[in-house]
Amino acid sequence: MMAVSNRKMIPTTSSSSSSSSRHFVGGFVAIVSILLLLLASMTDPVHGFILPSPFSSSSSTSTKTSLGPMARNGLQYEDIEIGTGRRILPGDAVLCYYVGTYQPKNGRSGSTNNNGLWSPKKSSSTAAVVTFDETEPGEPAEFVVGKGQVIPGWELGILGDLSLEIPPMKIGGDRKLVVPAALAYGDRSVGPIPPNQDLEFQIMILNAQPTGGVSTETQLKGIAGLIGFLSFFAVLGLFIAQHYNDWF
């Protein structure tokens, strides 16, 4: 007579549990990868966004001269577009496109501005508009405002002064300025700019970040690094748990 074993039959579940673990690990890795890709897309190499064209066709071909009233210090401004972001504050690192021109007082010629940018005041119909400086598409300028890194006319034209009825610019804003020589280079000759020359600018603010503290871009990169670090150990732990019985 065959002896009957008193052992209970235990169903084999290792294959199903192993398959479930693999699916879990695969899903976890996929979710982490998606999160890292999203964070990477939020931290564009040029300060977190796609750069627009320097100036819209409507503003670059504008010839209107309806500037705001002249401030007591001689500065004039006109907002082509008021930004929708926060206002610019002293100490901000500002990213912007700009073009600088002037009207020669003595009629001498220079590198003329052929892009049709704003010319608010003309001493004569034949005087050439000289473009002495401008940014290139995709290559904006960056500076810290309120720290003396730019001429006083820029500081005032960007930060504003409510006592002079000049509002501050906001991120995304596009403003035209007429800067008197006293707020530019005074009686100095700088490059192609003659002494005692009033200057005209068009400035488009792309972005601004406080220079103190941690920027949003740095915070996002830190979060992405933390997620990657934790994900590595989470997957490693799941792998060890899955194969623990096989090893020991």
Explain how this protein is built.
- The structure is a single chain.
- The chain is α+β, with helices and mostly antiparallel strands and 248 residues long.
- It has a domain at 57-210: Roll (Chitinase A, domain 3), CATH 3.10.50.
- The chain is built from four helices and six strands; from the N terminus they run ααββββαββα.
- It has helices at 14-42, 57-60, 152-159, 216-247; strands at residues 76-81, 92-102, 130-134, 141-144, 174-179, 199-210.
- Strands 1, 2, 3, 4, 5 and 6 form a six-stranded antiparallel β-sheet that branches.
- Helix 1 (14-42) runs antiparallel to helix 4.
- The radius of gyration is 31 Å and the shape is elongated.
- Residues 42-49, 56-65 and 108-126 have low confidence and may be disordered.
- The chain crosses the membrane at residues 223-241.
- What is the count of helical runs? 4
Rg, Cα atoms, Å: 31 Å
CATH topology of the domain at 57-210: Chitinase A, domain 3
Shape: elongated
Q: Label the structural class.
A: alpha+beta
**What are the low-pLDDT stretches, counting only 5+ consecutive residues below 50?**
42-49, 56-65, 108-126
| CATH architectural designation of the domain at 57-210 | Roll
Q: How would you spell out the order of helices and strands? A: HHEEEEHEEH
Percent of residues in beta strands? 15-25%
The CATH top-level class label of the domain at 57-210: Alpha Beta
Largest sheet: 6 strands, antiparallel
The chain-level mean pLDDT equals 73
* Helix content estimate: 25-40%
Q: State the total count of DSSP E strands.
A: 6
User: In whole angstroms, how far apart are the ends?
Assistant: 39 Å
